[in-house]
Design brief:
The protein is α/β, with parallel strands linked by helices and 254 residues long. The protein is built from ten helices and ten strands. Strand 1 and strand 2 form a beta hairpin. The structure holds adenosine-5'-triphosphate. InterPro entries: AAA+_ATPase, ABC_AA/LPS_Transport, ABC_transporter-like_ATP-bd, BCA_ABC_TP_C, P-loop_NTPase.
Length: 254
């Protein structure tokens, strides 16, 4: 993926298996979010294709969601003036087949689908611990619960792969621990998880595997223990690789 003269992501190949949590780490500007944006159709890669379960993915975000990939964003993107339940229901739209006319005419098929969606959304609120706040406006939730709601909304599309972009950013240690438990529970329910995060303690205790991006390329991939012990990873974070790190054109260590 190129932006003018800058190659933000190049030749990154990453497999996430069902029942696995994979971490994607790398210094600021390494291309992590760009990689997510290429996967989810927000960016059209200047070269290459994106495939999921052997099928080439559409470049339209809602079709990517329909194909089974859901995501959360670095900056929370909730419908602030809608309730918690309504936010999750919005996440169901790619899983409901009823069209505009059946909605306007409130056909029996539409009513059944609506009932099923509400049931499923309530189950997800239970699962994420937000059920007692289902009728609260999203904007009135504390920060940690807003992040949880984003995850619940993403899960509403019943993804096979969930992409989490910095899910613990701005959280206190208690909220971070709760998020870790939630991600484990999601994995245990059979959803593959790929997570970007700067909190290394969180990533190394959460993930089964970790991939490291540096200047848009995959530097290495392995178990948390292997990656933690890799001198090249430490050098990349400190900006002491042979190449200068992005955002540090002098190559000076911070
Ligand atoms: N829409 C865009 N237009 C131009 N350049 C972009 C765009 N999006 C990302 N970039 C550039 O691509 C590079 C990778 O950015 P990206 O946000 O993917 O990195 P990141 O690893 O997610 O960083 P961070 O950890 O700081 O969020 C950066 O140099 C960034 O400035």
């Amino acid at each position: 993926m190129r932006f003018g003269g800058l190659t933000a992501v190049q030749g990154v190949d990453l497999t996430v298996h069902t029942g696995e949590i994979v971490g994607l780490i790398g210094p600021n500007g390494a291309g992590k979010t760009t990689f997510f944006n290429c996967l989810t159709g927000l960016y059209t890669p200047t070269e290459g294709t994106v495939a999921y379960r052997g099928t080439r993915l559409s470049r339209k975000p809602h079709l990517v969601t329909q194909a089974g990939i859901a995501r959360t964003f670095q900056n929370i993107r909730l419908f602030a003036n809608m309730t918690v339940l309504e936010n999750v229901l919005v996440g169901r739209h790619t899983r409901t087949k009823e069209g505009l006319w059946s909605a306007l005419l409130r056909t029996p098929a539409f009513t059944r689908a609506e009932h099923h969606s509400t049931q499923r959304a309530l189950e997800l609120l239970d699962f994420t611990g937000l059920a007692p706040k289902s009728d609260h406006l999203a904007r009135n939730l504390p920060y940690g619960e807003q992040r949880k709601l984003e995850i619940a909304r993403a899960l509403a599309s019943e993804p096979g792969l969930l992409l989490l972009d910095e899910p613990t950013a701005g959280m206190n240690p208690q909220e971070t621990r709760a998020t870790q438990d939630l991600v484990h529970a999601i994995r245990d329910h059979g959803t593959a998880v790929l997570v970007i995060e700067h909190d290394m303690r969180f990533i190394f205790s959460l993930c089964d595997r970790v991939a490291v991006l540096v200047q848009g390329r995959k530097l290495t991939e392995g178990t948390p223990r292997t990656v933690q012990a890799d001198d090249r990873v430490i050098a990349a974070y400190l900006g002491t690789t042979d190449d200068t790190t992005p955002g540090d054109p002098t190559g000076d260590t911070p």
